[in-house]
Amino acid sequence: GAGVSQSPSNKVTEKGKDVELRCDPISGHTALYWYRQRLGQGLEFLIYFQGNSAPDKSGLPSDRFSAERTGESVSTLTIQRTQQEDSAVYLCASSLSWLAGGHRNIQYFGAGTRLSVL
Amino acid sequence: SQELEQSPQSLIVQEGKNLTINCTSSKTLYGLYWYKQKYGEGLIFLMMLQKGGEEKSHEKITAKLDEKKQQSSLHITASQPSHAGIYLCGADNTGGFKTIFGAGTRLFVKA
User: How confident is the model at residue B93 (pLDDT cuts 50, 70, 90)?
Assistant: First the structure.
């Protein structure tokens, strides 16, 4: 696609429910990243994918969070048994490559999914 | 671990005025990115700097990376309401693979 697409744009859920957030990266981008942004705060790195492999999962806040990616395309971030503290905007980004440095590493972001846990 | 500190945290300027936002790293910067975010939207890539002393411009926005590669500044000339938003700097984490971000600078432009 032309840009990174995230769905849904907004999600309201009840505490304890599971949610799935979806990200469609730019076609041809091998690297994909998930971030969390709480209200008024900066970006918190969650996880990144090299292709469909996630070498570093240390940013995931708890074992209620998981993510997967199919090939070099769609990724889903799943939050189980949601808590009110999970309320935030979840941003996805993709880049041509995961190698450090150079224009191939520039991340392009989707508009985010705003999650509200009641 | 590497950290990025942005200053000021927020800024209110009169339309037409110039302004500067700073991003300071605790370690040498190997790649520095500037993004802009409007409320309810994702981040829009503005510029990338890699070399010490490098300077890039896009329309009325200029970004510089200092010679020692530990600080970058973003300068907006003759600010307009369309410049309002949150400006974030990001840097390639030492060792690669992960980009870290500053907390952002909130810019308000009064018409």
Answer: low
Residues 6+ apart with CB under 8 A from B71: B22, B23, B24, B25, B65
Among partner residues B31, B88, B102, which is closest to A105 by beta-carbon distance? B31
Whole-number Å distance between alpha carbons of A72 and A54: 12
Question: Are B102 and B6 a contacting pair, CB within 8 Å?
Answer: yes
Tens digits of residue pLDDT in A29-38: 999 999 999 9
> Is any Cβ of chain A less than 8 angstroms from the Cβ of B56?
no
Q: Does B85 touch chain A (CB under 8 A)?
A: no
Alpha-carbon distance of B18 to A101, in angstroms, equals: 31
A48/B97 CB distance under 8 A: yes
The predicted-structure confidence for B12-45, as pLDDT tens digits, reads as follows 999 999 999 999 998 888 788 999 998 777 899 9
pLDDT, chain B, mean:
90
**Residue B30 near residue B45, CB atoms below 8 Å:** no
User: What is the distance, to the nearest Å, from the Cα of residue B97 to the centroid of all Cα atoms in its chain?
Assistant: 20
pLDDT at residue A46, as a whole number = 93
3-class DSSP state of A60? coil
DSSP per position, A65-108: EEEEE-TTS-EEEEE-S--GGG-EEEEEEEES--SSSSGGG--E
| Contact call for residues A8 and A113 (beta carbons, < 8 A) | yes
How far is Cα A100 from Cα B95, in angstroms, rounded to an integer? 8
